[in-house]
Design a protein that fits this description.
31 strands, single chain, 31 helices, alpha+beta, 8-stranded mixed beta barrel
């Protein structure tokens, strides 16, 4: 019934739709802001029109100015071009004039006689032989008669006595010693007008005393000039012309035959001004009668003016396109403004109806949002009466909507919660406490009867009352507790992690400073990486968890065990009286760790390396005792693992010495502070040198010669071996390329260099840079290369063999000596380790092993080289056993490159050395 009454009221208030729209429009137009909007729109359209007209005018003037600037630049460039070209053209005439002046003719008759000879004709032809252009050169005497020419001999009967420039030159009234005049065809002017136009350039010929002797003349066809002007034309309606400074038109493109030779220095002052100075004007062309933009530039050294012109229509072509675009844009803009005004007015007619609908929709959305919050929401007014309560609050505490509803008091809500069992305690005391604190923001956490944690946040509202949110934070607290646990405990073994270990050690050190002693044990599980890599991480994780359990069982309640990361553990042993206490703990640890393990069906056994640092003997602060325990552990690992070591001061000294050696090694690599010595390899059949092995040497500036056994492991551990090995390979190859004959070069390759894919590229680069043939290079590898990564190593070796280099197996017999390597990769050579050679003459077992290796190599078509041969008896036994080559002190130790070169030259045949 109420809803029906509301509809009736709405129909009374709202008239029919058409009437309503007209009413809204009229009302809107009467309102100030809307009227101002319409006025502004009209003014904007007017402004668009005015701005368009002004822009069109500005663009027109800018287009004309741009055209004038382009014409001026063109005229200037052409003027500079013709200054240079005419200067070059006049150079030959100047040379003739200089020659005449130097000849010191007694009279004009002598000049005519000397210059009219066949010899002078040849001189003129010679001068034109290297000159640009095909123009001939002619010489006229003081009477204007042609006396010689480069074009023909004898010359024709031609005179220029009637020419104004000749008369001015003869009379001495010419402004310059060079005259330029437009002529038609031959200089005499005797041909018909249809003949070719030319520009004659005449140079005065004077004696040493200044007496007039004649003229030397060359002519330029205006067709040549017009051809060049055509290449510089600016546009379809543009023209470029060459004028004499007196206004005579000499050449023009496009050509106007009727105007050639006409004097255009007539008419208006603007037209005359074109020939006076470098100028730009707008005038009507006397040639074609069109309105043109004209720009002129005079030549510096010649009485010639370059004039560039274009029609105003051509200059304004782009402007017309811009004008059309601006007009269209202005019309579109005005139309857009009108449409926007129409849409705004139309929008106003629907604004009231839309706002009412939006208000209803907002109420629905607010109700939906409140009832779907993750928190319970309550809003109370100043009289403690409920205004809003969402569904989440009712569900959180299991309350009835019939009781907890708008209008009920705060005390009634809490009393209902107590009845339903979600509230414990006194209702009155709780309500009084909350009401007393509603004037400030407050956050509290309460526990419910079912062990849930509820966070209540209260915020006062303007005018009295408050809003409260109730959020169940039980899971959040559990997550925070879990995060706090993981921050201090290892997720795999549940042992304390490194952070908690350091905190505990700091506390124990503070207690120990009051007189107690403690020991810090660092434990590293031996061969854990191999187990992890071969059996997989799940097996490795199970092993670590089992080790952690056994470590816990070995310590006392006062001790502390932690996992530091990876396979490293640490134990803080408190109340230590002497080293024997720590030794007893270590023995318990070894017995526990060495027991077999069952990990996911795998039967495993392992061991540990343990380092021990005592407080206060081995350190008085946390970082020092941790560092010393770590050093002791690494010392135990370095001595073969499966043992323990107490910290000693020498360990720290050893580490410092190693770091110093590493620093020196890096500097030596950067400074190329190494040497390469070469130990000869001798053929056992004829005692001839067939090759050598390159051996790296380091002569330290203060420590002297350092053994490779000392610095090569450091280079391998630090990754410097790649850089060092590349230098050795490149340097040795460059040296070997100088050796005569087919002497081979053997270079050792570290197993670390096989980890990457760059070794074949390094070998190829060294061979290319040195020019050494690939079959002379031999790379020596050990079984360690194949053991670490069998397939990758074999792939790399095959790529090296594909380059043409040879590969030998070094130190054969000292490692696993797996015959499968010899089968899977066809080595070129097997090197027998010196340990077998040392006792070959006293132990039958060594001789048998050497024979076996030699037989295997022979069957696989491999060469054998015995290392460390020091006696004649060893050499003879190796010969009998069939060994191919030897190297050792018996023949030569490792020597410098220069000494090895001298050794080669002293032993090789003379023809081969040459």
């Amino acid at each position: 019934m109420d809803r029906f009454q509301d509809r009736e009221n709405d129909s009374d208030i709202n008239p029919p739709e058409g009437t309503s729209r007209r009413f809204v429009v009229v009302s809107a137009l009467r309102q100030g802001p809307i009227g101002w909007l319409v006025t502004c729109g009209f003014l904007l359209i007017v402004a668009i029109a005015v701005a368009t007209v002004m822009a069109i005018g500005n663009f027109r003037e800018q287009a004309l100015q741009n055209a004038e600037r382009e014409l001026s630049n063109t005229a200037l460039l052409l003027a500079r071009h013709y200054d240079r070209e005419l200067g070059d053209f006049l150079a030959i005439q100047s040379a003739v004039a200089a020659m005449v002046e130097q000849s010191r003719f007694a009279s004009p008759d002598d000049f005519s006689g000397e210059m009219s000879t066949l010899a002078m004709h040849e001189v003129l032809r010679t001068k034109l032989a290297g000159a640009a252009g095909a123009s001939k050169i002619s010489i006229f005497n003081s009477n204007g008669l042609l006396i010689n020419a480069s074009a023909s001999w004898p010359v024709a009967d031609i005179t220029i006595a009637h020419r104004a420039y000749f008369q001015a030159m003869k009379a001495g009234s010419a402004a310059s010693s060079v005259a330029i005049e437009l002529v038609q065809s031959r200089l005499s002017g005797g041909r018909q007008a249809s003949e070719e136009w030319k520009i004659a350039i005449a140079k005065r010929l004077s004696s040493a005393t200044g007496e007039f002797l004649g003229l030397v003349v060359r002519a330029i066809p205006i067709a040549d000039l017009e051809q060049f002007l055509a290449s510089a034309a600016l546009g379809r309606d543009s023209a470029i012309s060459i004028h004499h400074r007196d206004g005579v038109l000499l050449a023009r493109y496009p050509r106007s035959e009727a105007m050639i030779g006409q004097n255009l220095r007539t008419g208006s002052a603007l037209q005359q001004g074109v020939f006076n100075t470098n100028n730009g004007v707008r005038l009507t062309s006397p040639v074609d009668g069109q309105d043109r933009l004209v720009s002129s530039h005079a030549l510096v050294d010649f009485p010639i003016v370059i004039v560039a012109a274009t029609t105003a229509a051509e200059a304004l072509a782009d402007w017309r396109n811009q004008t059309r675009f601006l007009i269209v844009a202005a019309c579109v803009s005005a139309l857009v403004v009108a449409i926007i005004l129409f849409l705004i007015i139309r929008r106003l007619t629907n604004q009231h109806r839309v706002s009412q609908r939006q208000l209803t929709l907002d109420k629905q959305r607010l109700s939906t949002a409140i009832n779907n919050m993750s928190q319970g929401l309550l809003l109370f007014d100043a009289s403690e009466r409920m205004v809003i309560c969402n569904q989440r609050y009712l569900d959180m505490y299991g309350l009835s909507a019939d009781v907890v509803k708008a209008g009920c008091s705060f005390r009634e809500v809490i009393a209902h919660r107590k009845q339903t069992g979600s509230f414990k305690g006194s209702v009155e005391e709780y309500c009084d406490r909350v009401i007393d604190s509603v004037s400030v923001n407050g956050v509290s956490i309460v526990q419910t009867s079912d062990d849930r944690s509820i966070q209540i946040t209260s915020v006062p509202v303007l005018g009295g009352g408050w809003v409260a949110t109730h959020e169940d934070i039980t899971e959040r607290q559990r997550s925070d507790q879990r995060i706090a646990y993981l921050a201090h405990y290892d997720g795999l073994t549940d042992l304390p992690n490194r952070a908690l270990f350091r905190q505990q050690l700091e506390q124990e050190l503070q207690r120990a400073n009051r007189g107690a002693r403690l020991a810090l044990l660092y434990i590293d599980i031996d061969e854990f990486k191999a187990i992890n890599d071969t059996l997989g991480h799940p097996i490795g994780d199970e092993l670590l968890k089992a080790v952690a359990v056994r470590l816990r069982e070995c310590i006392r309640e006062t001790d502390f065990v932690a996992r530091l990361g990876g396979d490293e553990f640490a134990i803080i042993q408190t109340a230590v009286t002497s080293r024997s206490d720590s030794i007893e703990l270590v023995e318990r640890l070894f017995r526990a760790i060495r027991l077999p393990y069952q990990c996911l069906g795998h039967h495993l056994s392992t061991d540990a390396s343990i380092g021990i640092a005592m407080f206060p003997d081995d350190g008085v602060d946390l970082d020092e005792i941790v560092k010393n325990a770590d050093l002791a552990m690494y010392s135990a690992k370095a001595e073969g693992r499966r043992t323990y070591r107490f910290f000693e001061q020498q360990m720290d000294a050893d580490v410092k010495a190693r770091r110093e050696l590493e620093s020196d090694l890096r500097k030596a690599i950067a400074d190329r502070g190494f040497e390469i010595h070469y130990q000869p390899i001798v053929d056992l059949l004829n005692d001839e040198i067939v090759g050598c092995e390159a051996l790296l040497r380091w002569r330290h500036p203060t420590r002297g010669m350092i053994s490779p056994a000392e610095f090569i492991p450091i280079a391998e551990e630090t990754g410097l071996i790649d850089q060092l090995g590349g230098w050795v390979l490149a340097t040795a190859c460059a040296e070997a390329a100088k050796w005569p004959g087919e002497i081979s070069l053997a270079v050792n390759v570290s197993p670390i260099q096989f980890k990457g894919q760059a070794l074949p590229l390094t070998v190829a680069a060294a061979l290319a840079a040195s020019g050494l043939t690939a079959n002379r290079l031999e790379l020596e590898v050990t079984e360690a290369v194949l053991i670490r990564d069998d397939e990758t190593a074999l792939t790399t070796l095959h790529r090296i063999r594909a380059l043409g280099a040879r590969v030998s197996l070094d130190d054969f017999g000292t490692g696993y000596s797996s015959l499968s390597y010899l089968q899977r990769f066809p080595f070129d050579k097997i090197k027998i380790d010196r340990s077998f050679v040392d006792r070959i003459d006293v132990c039958e077992g060594s001789a048998a092993i050497v024979r076996a290796v030699v037989d295997i190599a022979a069957a696989r078509h491999m060469t054998t080289t015995a290392e460390g041969v020091e006696t004649v008896q060893q050499r003879e036994l190796l010969r009998k056993l069939g060994c191919t080559q030897m190297q050792g002190y018996l023949f030569s130790s490792a020597i410098s490159a220069a000494a090895f070169g001298r050794l080669l030259h002293s032993r090789l045949p003379a023809a081969e050395v040459a």
